[in-house]
Design goal:
Elements (H helix, E strand, L loop, with lengths): L2 H29 L4 H22 L5 H20 L3 H24 L3
Amino acid sequence: MNDSSKDAIAKSMLVVNALTSAGFAFVGLVAEPGNIAALYSLARIVPIAAVVIAAVAMRARLVTLGVLLAIIQGCDALVGLAQHDAMKAIGPLVFAIATAFAVRRLRRTSPG
């Protein structure tokens, strides 16, 4: 696999991470309309997802955004642990780790 393919996979991971988070926030709001926590979650992740997608489209540096997404997923995993819900902890943890690997890959080719 060449470097551009590896970069494309890393960038795709960031987009999938952001869109998955937005999707879960949206589903939470649909499942419980008016849920303030879901509204805040959606308000937090939609702009981040939009910026990630725009940055990928503009071929901008994505390392900082990737770090942000990994931290958010790590925090989501902590929420799952606090709720004693393995699925709410494992899923975000897997995304956090995958995103961290994507960031590591992107740092090799484009710092910032």
